[in-house]
Amino acid sequence: MTSPDITQTPLIVPLGSRDVDDIARIHVACFDEAWNARILTRILAMTGAFALGVRQGGGVRLGRRPPQGGVAEALAGFAIARVAADECELLSLGVAPASRGLGLGAMMLDAALVRAGSVNVRKFFLEVAENNIPALTLYKARGLTQIGRRPKYYENKDGSFTDAITMRVELPEVNSS
Question: What is the pTM of this model?
Answer without folding.
Answer: 0.86
